[in-house]
Write a structure and sequence with these properties.
Blueprint (H helix, E strand, L loop, with lengths): L6 E3 L5 E3 L5 E8 L5 E9 L16 E2 L3 E2 L5 H13 L2 H7 L4 E4 L2 H5 L11 E5 L7 H12 L3 E7 L4 H6 L5 E5 L8 H10 L3 E5 L4 H9 L4 E3 L18 H11 L5 H9 L2 H11 L13 H8 L1 H11 L13 H17 L7 H13 L3 H4 L3 H7 L4 H9 L2 H14 L3 H9 L6 H16 L14
Parallel strand pairs: 4-7, 7-8, 8-9, 9-10, 10-11, 11-12
Antiparallel strand pairs: 1-2, 3-4, 3-12, 5-6
Helix pairs in contact: 2-20, 8-9, 8-12, 9-11, 10-11, 13-14, 13-18, 13-20, 14-17, 17-18, 18-19
């Protein structure tokens, strides 16, 4: 007997297919001040189901009109993507920021797209989109429903570009692939037309400087996490003070030793007192002394707080808006969650995984030799080998989260082959969970206090 996946009718008339599940990754989008202002959601669509046969029972029915035409495999995939985009794990990973998400023709033309809150999702139109009268009519209809559109992956004007331009408010230009001589004129014309410009592929400080100078409004890429941008960042406490504190914490210090070291750094004391008095750490009364703050917080949490504080921007910004700190915190939390799926992993392995993630970006803060900085931090050899050479289980997990950050789904799958029983779906799910954890870290007992000088 053939088993048929059960489809249920949703309020918008689209069917849910429980056998189809999409996976998602997120990429940060920064504003002109270098702060987080959104995420692009990279979609890994589920495999299309087989075409329905004549003997496949029809389950999508309308009592008033009788049996409906069974949805095509492409429609079922599109509906699964729309359903999964509004699940809690995606919503949590956005941490209050808007989402840019790729859509294809099938999703645009299906009413399942109406599940996406128009105020939270901006729909990206790919350059390969087949544009005809039916699609234009659909864009007009969705625009009346307050949906907004972005023209994605532009390198130069094309026929599709010209047809879609009147209906979009955002244009995303790949500044590394667009002809360099064309960029100034293209940016000027689009800005004059009132379009918001997003620079794609900004992985080097020089690319950011060029796009910024041309008036681009948003930037997508990992330039902010590269060593060459270290000179542009400011940290909220002296670097040497943070390093000294980390070295002390690595040696199982006494409360008196910690108290003496912290007293040398008033900014650190202020942060620690805030952390100790946060709702999750309160012990029934207000913490008023440094010694009480150390006892209430615990050395493990102080260590993690100090590690992440290395990445904090020196300006008065919320933790969830600081891109480098968010990236480091997300990667560290992912590593910790993922190592727990590995056989025989314990507390020590989880701590090592967190350290591997959090210090994999340390050269973006300090510049210079990554190996020298890791030696100063007295990290263990397995952690250093994972960061420097992607060796061992920690190195493979680091490679997995790097591939996820880039939306490189094939690469994620290749790494998972060496990390069994870990699957691509689990990696994606843990990536979203880690992002959600990092985004609310300043409001929970597990994370940090708001970074404000």
């Amino acid at each position: 007997m053939t088993t048929i996946a059960i489809e249920t009718l949703s309020p918008d008339g689209a069917t849910d297919d429980a056998s189809l599940r999409a996976s998602f990754a997120r990429q940060p989008i920064l504003n002109r001040d270098g702060m987080l202002c959104g995420y692009e959601i990279k979609v890994r669509a589920p495999d299309a189901p087989p075409e329905p046969t004549d003997d496949t029972p029809v389950t999508d029915t309308d009592p008033a009109r009788g049996p409906a035409t069974p949805p095509t495999p492409a429609q079922r995939v599109a509906r699964a993507i729309a359903r999964d985009l509004v699940q809690g794990d995606v919503r949590g990973a956005l941490t209050g920021h808007p989402a840019y998400v790729d859509v294809n023709r099938d999703l645009l033309l299906d009413d399942a797209i109406l599940r996406l809150p128009a105020e939270r999702f901006l729909l990206e139109l790919p350059p390969s989109l087949d544009v005809d009268d039916a699609l234009i009519a659909r864009l007009v209809y969705l625009h009346k429903r307050r949906y907004r559109f972005a023209l994605d992956d532009v390198t130069q004007p094309t026929e599709t570009f010209a047809k879609l331009l009147p209906y979009v408010e955002v244009v995303k230009i790949d500044v590394t692939r667009a002809p360099r001589a064309l960029l100034p004129k293209l940016a000027s014309v689009l800005k004059s037309a009132g379009k918001l410009l997003v620079a794609l592929g900004v992985d080097a400080q020089s690319d950011f400087d060029i796009a910024h100078g041309l008036g681009f409004d948003r930037f997508q890429g990992y330039y902010f996490a590269r060593a060459q941008s270290a000179a542009t960042r400011r940290v909220s406490a002296p670097r040497h003070a943070l390093l000294n504190l980390l070295q002390l914490l690595a040696g199982d210090p006494t409360v008196a030793q910690l108290e003496a070291e912290l007293k040398l750094n008033p900014v650190l004391v202020m942060h620690l007192m805030k952390l100790a008095n946060s709702s999750g750490l309160a012990v029934g009364h207000k913490v008023t002394t440094l010694r009480d703050a150390i006892n209430a917080t615990g050395t493990d949490r102080i260590a993690r707080w100090t590690q992440l504080l290395l990445y904090a921007d020196g300006r008065k910004v919320a933790l969830e808006d600081d891109p480098l700190l968010q990236l480091a915190a997300t990667r560290a939390r992912f590593m910790e969650l993922a190592i727990e799926r590995m056989p025989d992993a314990g507390r020590d392995e989880a701590d090592a995984a967190f350290l591997t993630g959090v210090f994999s970006f340390v050269d973006a803060v300090f510049g210079g030799s990554l190996e020298r900085t890791l030696n100063i931090l007295t990290l263990s050899r397995p952690i250093q080998a994972a960061i420097l050479h992607r060796e061992g289980t920690l190195g493979l997990l680091l490679a997995a989260i790097e591939a996820l950050e880039g939306g490189e789904w094939e690469r994620v799958g290749e790494v998972c082959e060496r990390l069994q029983p870990l699957t691509v779906e689990e990696v994606a799910q843990m990536g979203l969970a880690a992002g959600a954890w990092a985004g609310v870290a300043d409001r929970s007992a597990e994370g940090l206090e708001r970074i404000e000088d």
